[in-house]
Input
Amino acid sequence: MENKKRRFAVLTGGGDCPGLNAVIRAVVKTFLQNDCEVYGVINGFNGLVNDNLQLMDYAAVSGILPRGGTILGTTNRDNPFKFAVEENGELVYKDMREKVLENLQKYDIEALVVIGGDGSLNIGAQLARECGVKVVGVPKTIDNDLPCTERTFGFDTAMAMATEALDRLHTTAESHHRVMVLEVMGRYAGWIALHSGIAGGADVILLPEIPYKLDSVIKKIEARKAAGKSFSIVVAAEGAKPEGGEMSVARMVKGSFEPIRLGGIGEKVANAIEEATGIESRCTVLGYLQRGGSPTPYDRVLSTRYGVAAAEACLRGEYNVMVSLYHDQIVTVYIQKAASQPRQVPVDSEIIRTGRQLGMCFGD
Ligand code: F6P
Output
């Protein structure tokens, strides 16, 4: 009788993130080393709907450890349960779960490794819950806002980029006696702003978790001026908002399972500071530089550990879990739990207290 190999599939969903390729490499190598076959799903859940899967071998993952992006492609629009298709020039949403199941069956896939943020992990959890698909999740996002894990891969790289930007902004701010505002990503959580703000020695850090009062920000900048510091550095998370006000929305993305895209708060804060203090102020939006390019060594290691752990969970038949970092060990948690509410910065956390002890202003 033919000895059939166990077959698995791996996909990357949602926004790209440094370390995706390192996870793919680790997943593929672990399966191959254990005499299994593994398919890469192209362009996230789109590939599962549209039958776009590729058999992976060692050559497919060779040399990708330091590479940014994802060799499998990704999209943050395609949800098989609400799949956008054009009909008579209009976008309509269809339930394509049958297509997904058909394709998984066609390739005889035992389980699916979903490398994604909350959107993709939610889809994975729904596939597990409602369709019986066996899923193992890997927590990806530069935002670090997933619950049930102490770290998502990609965050360290984004934080390093933002810190480098702050270092560079410092020298130009000092030379021109300006206020420099750096707007960073992070959606509804302030992890990137907080950590880069501490690492980059910012004077003001604005987070979604602490609605700011413009007066407090102005006071801080004026106090610095009075103390002989003619420049200041402000980091604003894209989700920061004034007390009693709203977050700044840059655009709505049609067809995306989470259509709101934040952006614009940095410019607003810079203008308000200039108007109130008379100090020339400029805003820099760091944007996709936080997501592109090579992962840091920390992210390479974390991504590799996550990838191996996800494949190992599949090999031992432990499904519907997400791999997670807990006390520096890789453990598994129920995917259902991991795909719940985003994890925000606790306002009473030790790291915020650290910033306060240094005299940093959080706008409150
Ligand atoms: O979740 C990652 C992230 O980069 C957020 O920080 C940001 O708000 C969002 O994705 C941007 O999404 P898009 O790539 O659709 O513009």
About this structure: Residues 15, 76, 117, 141-143, 185-187, 238, 253, 261-262, 291 surround 6-O-phosphono-beta-D-fructofuranose (CB under 6 Å). The chain has a mean pLDDT of 96. The chain has eleven helices and 15 strands.
